Amino acid sequence: MQRMGLCIGLKPETIPAYRELHAAVWPDVLAAITKANIRNYSIFLREPENMLFAYWEYHGSDFAADAAEMAKDPAMQKWWTICDPMQEPLQTRGEGEWWARMVEVFHHD
């Protein structure tokens, strides 16, 4: 299992809609996430900075392949079409990243 953390900005005017959307995530989106071997997935919002932090545990053996398959899912594509315009990627994110990956520096079970 691999723990993964990512962050991105959220446009302030979209916070109510983003909260509402994530209060009732579509079943097809949840199924695509599960099929991609992602478990224990949470998104946190820090205000007033309007920063999102996502955490999940990846239980597969090839995250790039699983993520590519998930990206082909029509429900995920529609979900991202709605969510992406609400977000503000960090200028310091890596090439090809939308959400910026974070490095785990501490863990305690």
What does this structure look like?
By secondary structure, the protein is an alpha+beta fold. The protein has one domain: Alpha-Beta Plaits, CATH 3.30.70. Helices cover 35% and strands 28% of the residues. It has four helices and five strands; from the N terminus they run βααββααββ. It has helices spanning 15-23, 27-35, 63-72, 74-83; strands at 2-10, 38-46, 51-58, 87-88, 100-102. Strands 1, 2, 3, 4 and 5 form a five-stranded antiparallel beta sheet that branches.
What kind of oligomer do you see? single chain
- Provide the low-confidence segments as ranges: none
- For the record, the CATH class is Alpha Beta
Secondary-structure element string: EHHEEHHEE
Report the CATH architecture. 2-Layer Sandwich
* N→C terminal distance: 14 Å
Helix- and strand-based class?
alpha+beta
What is the helix content? 25-40%
CATH T-level topology:
Alpha-Beta Plaits
Mean pLDDT: 97
Gross morphology is globular
Strand content: 25-35%
Number of domains: 1
The Rg value, from CA coordinates, equals: 14 Å
